Amino acid sequence: MAIKSLSIRIDDKVLDKLHVVAxxxxxxxxxxxxxxxxxxxxxxxxxxGEIKIGK
Length: 55
Description:
There is one protein chain. The protein is mostly helical. The protein is built from 2 helices and no strands. The chain has helices at residues 12-25, 29-48. The longest helix is centred in the C-terminal third of the chain and has 20 residues, at 29-48.
């Protein structure tokens, strides 16, 4: 599996809050974001079926 980078623009206040949540969960901000993305995809797939990636 290839690891890719993604840049996002994020408000300072939101980023500060993300760091608080990540610290509480014992994760880095990057790891916390990955968890949130995976949870979002899982929820979507439960409602709409598996996302098929054509490669």
